[in-house]
User: Fold this.
Amino acid sequence: MKYFIGISGYFHDSSVAILDENGKLIDFKKEEYFSRVKGDKSFPRLALMEMIKNFDLSNDNVLRVTFYEKPFKAWLNILKYSIKNNSLLNELTRNYFKNIWNSSIIFSYDLSKYLKISNQKVIYCDHHLSHTLTGTYYNNRNPITSIVIDGYGDESTSSIHHVKSSSEINNIWSSAFPHSIGLFYSAITDYLGFSINEGEYKVMGLAAYGQPIYYDKLSKTIYFRDGNLYLDNQYYDFCRSITRSYSDKIKEIFKINERESNQILDLNSPNFEEYANIAASAQKIVENLLKEIFLFAHKMTKEKRFIFSGGVAMNSVAIKEISKLEFIDEIIIPPSPGDSGAAIGAAYYGYLKSGNEFRTDFEKDDVEILSPGLIKNNIDDEEFISAKYDKICDEKKIVETACNIIASNEILATCYKNIETGPRALGHRSMICNAHSKQAVDELNENIKKRSKFRPVAPIILKENAEKYFSLSDKLYKSYYYMGSVAEVFNSQNIEAVVHKDNTARVQLCDENHILGKILSKLKEKNIDVLANTSFNISSDPMVYSLEDAYLAIERMNIKYLLTENGIYSKK
Assistant:
């Protein structure tokens, strides 16, 4: 077997993807799985070494290694802007010079330390094309329009590609740094006291509790007009500073100063409403900007089907709003639309550059290939768990035992086979409970995860039961299998604990081939339609990866039950 490798790194969420010689994704690993550093941005040496071991990678069986951006262009783009608009002595300018040998420019050297491969096999893909091809991997019908919205990459912060065939992918529009929707949202994330590149989803959740009272003033700092995206850099410092993303001028818009990150923010916190109003205003701006860009793309390409990727494509609330546009027939969101998932697009670029065509060997409605299930990991020895846990069932009784645990309103953690491709836990690295029990959901969310009340857990439901509770859009149907979009809730009776303030839920559909689908099918006997799901990790840590990670997490979080593919364990 021959392989195509894609690598992302040096900015955030480094990862490695591998396709087989037929262009099929067979493994994907983020560096944080192994380093246990949340959002690890270093060269993904541990992830790569794991793949070298698992697939015996060498110059003989690797056809291409593709990096997900063009390093010199990416480094030079911001440097040129900073020299022109700041100065040679500016901290951003100096930082780019200072860190040149810690940037992606040394990718080829870093790669050579772990994988000895011919230089002719190492290629580079434009950053936004990597995102586009990640989405294209999950599409089986062309032509289609790809929209990429993120912070920035290479020369662009946003782009539109018209994908006609594997040999005709035209970049027909782009927006240059610093005019960036992603960096705007990150600046608001920073102002609200959350970590950039990690806390944006908290802003999205917080927005449901506020009113967009700052929309009019804030929308004057970033807007889309005459086919151009504009950002007024008087309000934002990310284009001149390495320590702060917003300027003092933005404080003139809001009624409250920035929130200190060490302050607790919850429903009863002082100034909660004001911070929620800021979040709501920013969220509305993003939604409206995206609607304008999608309409602009439609007018240029006349297409009604879209791929949407880049970090902003993880804004599942905005995606629901975009889907309401009448000219859209379908939106394809890859399971991992951010930078880590761009490694998949990079690997696909290597596959296409080797003379191959787009893969179309899957059916239009084949959800399984569109979902993130990949090869199984090697099963670790579970004997070390037996010191503190009893094995209460083997693999043959997993479903039945899990149902009894859930029906008793207990919490069940899962470390089942391989981890999901995307950033959302979908049952293989989850903590689940009965969504019909508010007490169980509150215990999971507030006491075990210790999360703020404005961040709800997600509902999981069999596709055959989904329409009892949720208004699902045909335009987004596949994305519901990996929580790509929220959905309106029209029947919240008995599932209020998984419904957000704005009457939406980030629903996950599953079928009976999925472990959670099997559990839900059995739970019908107990009148339980919906499970509550959250990622299996301690706050600020990556999701658990190995059984060792799972063991440490359940000990620290005081969880009683753990499900693996070999059975279920209970604390002694």
